[in-house]
Write a structure and sequence with these properties.
With about 80 residues, the protein is mostly helical. The protein is about 85% helix and about 0% strand. Helix 1 crosses helix 2.
Length: about 80
C-alpha cells in the first residue's frame, strides 16, 4: 500500500513539475513578445512588474482560474480557521 502511494506521489510531483515548467516557459514567451512589441513604451523600472503579472496571467489562463475564484478560496480557508 505504501509503495502505491509513493508511486502516485511521484507521478503527481512529476506532473506538477511539468505543468509549472510549462507555465513559466509560456509566460516568459508572452513576456518577450510583449516587451518586443512595446519596448519603446516601457521603462526598465516596470519590466520586472510586467513579467510577474504576465506569469500570473498565464497561470490563471492555463488553469482556468480567475481572481475571484482565488479570493473565494482564500476566504473559505480563513473561515475554516474560526470553526
Amino acid at each position: 500500500m505504501e509503495r502505491s502511494n509513493e508511486m502516485n506521489t511521484g507521478t503527481s510531483k512529476a506532473l506538477v513539475c511539468e505543468q509549472s515548467r510549462d507555465v513559466l516557459i509560456k509566460g516568459y514567451m508572452v513576456y518577450e513578445a510583449f516587451i518586443n512589441q512595446f519596448e519603446k513604451m516601457i521603462s526598465e523600472d516596470f519590466k520586472e512588474s510586467i513579467l510577474l503579472h504576465i506569469l500570473l496571467m498565464t497561470h490563471r489562463i492555463m488553469f482556468n482560474q480567475q481572481y475571484q475564484d482565488i479570493i473565494e478560496d482564500l476566504e473559505r480557508t480563513k473561515l475554516k480557521k474560526y470553526y
